[in-house]
């Protein structure tokens, strides 16, 4: 299926907040100031999206408590032995809608005002999160209600990522991309932390409150985004340096730096016209260099990351740490350690990849190191609180580091391929394949965890470790190419030194 371009013209007017506060406009405020403002607004915006996704994982242990020797009845239809299955189905409904909506959101966002579109996504998400929480106050016990709300919420949530990445691409270029995107991509972990703390702090008043507050939070941030987010520098009369590059709405660079002549691959992309190449087919996009390895690696990486996102508080609630059974609130707060590790891991992976200029190598190192750490966490995480926190922190860094880096590395890699350079329609198809494949893994992981956890948590960790191992296997071709390039660079360097 091919989506036809929409006959819509994005607005080039500045946001209304800059009209209310004229001192925020140039020349009173410089390009650097507005770059920081865009960085801050997009960071908070996507953090708010993730904060509003966190409540379902926090309330899992309340909706379907399976802790021995505790008098918890749960919330129909999530109580009883089949409760984890129903909770997993809720996660699947949200994430499948999210993955399907991602492609359509990117296509629509390419043709309309990103600020307005992002605001719509945030407002819809906030309202639906609140509606889910109203299920508690209205005493709703119909599974269909919760499924419908999650599906609609997933569709609105899918608007967020394409929009914020596109805006970032309009303002920031390739220089120090690993560092900048590593820091900026921590918005997911920061959002998870905020959502966990807020939802856990009010869980004692009733699980509905855990949804109301994050829902209100994203609505407030939506207002700030609508009032002050500038989509492009030229909307307020500013210009970027010539070295800066632009990304399309899926977050892929439209114009990359010259990387030399690449080997031609017949039959991959058709001939270009003066207006750019036409859209490529689904199978043709899969054949582009790097697409299949990154897509399948992201599938398994997201599977692991989102399993922790949706099930870690539930796991902690059902695990005895140092002989103590954690409360619902304590389990939710403690789970933020994993996200703190994710912040550290994302920045560390970005910085190190900038230094050695081999993102695939850094990703596979993180992935392989996470295997023994997850094993140790399962075996020794219950020994003491210190051991649990330490291993959870390291696990978060190693699991989320490559997940964050792979997302940005894919953008950089595709943007510098001569086969599709400048072909925005080809880039849209390719990034939809990669993001869509990764999101399917994100949907599958929590669902499998819901079913497998009833057989024991050892089985869940076996699934996670196996997924990480498979993800690393798909990176081997990319790592080989990076190592080969480094060796060739060293070879030519030595030849140059000898000639001198």
Automatic annotation (TrEMBL):
<comment type="similarity">
    <text>Belongs to the major facilitator superfamily. Organophosphate:Pi antiporter (OPA) (TC 2.A.1.4) family.</text>
</comment>
<dbReference type="InterPro" id="IPR000849">
    <property type="entry name" value="Sugar_P_transporter"/>
</dbReference>
<keyword id="KW-0812">Transmembrane</keyword>
<keyword id="KW-0762">Sugar transport</keyword>
<dbReference type="GO" id="GO:0022857">
    <property type="term" value="F:transmembrane transporter activity"/>
</dbReference>
<protein>
    <recommendedName>
        <fullName>Major facilitator superfamily (MFS) profile domain-containing protein</fullName>
    </recommendedName>
</protein>
<feature type="transmembrane region" description="Helical">
    <location>
        <begin position="144"/>
        <end position="172"/>
    </location>
</feature>
<feature type="transmembrane region" description="Helical">
    <location>
        <begin position="116"/>
        <end position="138"/>
    </location>
</feature>
<keyword id="KW-0813">Transport</keyword>
<feature type="domain" description="Major facilitator superfamily (MFS) profile">
    <location>
        <begin position="40"/>
        <end position="483"/>
    </location>
</feature>
<feature type="transmembrane region" description="Helical">
    <location>
        <begin position="460"/>
        <end position="479"/>
    </location>
</feature>
<feature type="transmembrane region" description="Helical">
    <location>
        <begin position="426"/>
        <end position="448"/>
    </location>
</feature>
<dbReference type="GO" id="GO:0055062">
    <property type="term" value="P:phosphate ion homeostasis"/>
</dbReference>
<feature type="transmembrane region" description="Helical">
    <location>
        <begin position="31"/>
        <end position="49"/>
    </location>
</feature>
<feature type="transmembrane region" description="Helical">
    <location>
        <begin position="184"/>
        <end position="205"/>
    </location>
</feature>
<feature type="transmembrane region" description="Helical">
    <location>
        <begin position="389"/>
        <end position="414"/>
    </location>
</feature>
<feature type="transmembrane region" description="Helical">
    <location>
        <begin position="291"/>
        <end position="312"/>
    </location>
</feature>
<dbReference type="InterPro" id="IPR011701">
    <property type="entry name" value="MFS"/>
</dbReference>
<dbReference type="InterPro" id="IPR020846">
    <property type="entry name" value="MFS_dom"/>
</dbReference>
<feature type="transmembrane region" description="Helical">
    <location>
        <begin position="211"/>
        <end position="231"/>
    </location>
</feature>
<keyword id="KW-0472">Membrane</keyword>
<dbReference type="GO" id="GO:0005789">
    <property type="term" value="C:endoplasmic reticulum membrane"/>
</dbReference>
<keyword id="KW-1133">Transmembrane helix</keyword>
<dbReference type="InterPro" id="IPR036259">
    <property type="entry name" value="MFS_trans_sf"/>
</dbReference>
<feature type="transmembrane region" description="Helical">
    <location>
        <begin position="358"/>
        <end position="377"/>
    </location>
</feature>
<feature type="transmembrane region" description="Helical">
    <location>
        <begin position="332"/>
        <end position="351"/>
    </location>
</feature>
<comment type="similarity">
    <text>Belongs to the major facilitator superfamily. Phosphate:H(+) symporter (TC 2.A.1.9) family.</text>
</comment>
<dbReference type="Pfam" id="PF07690">
    <property type="entry name" value="MFS_1"/>
</dbReference>
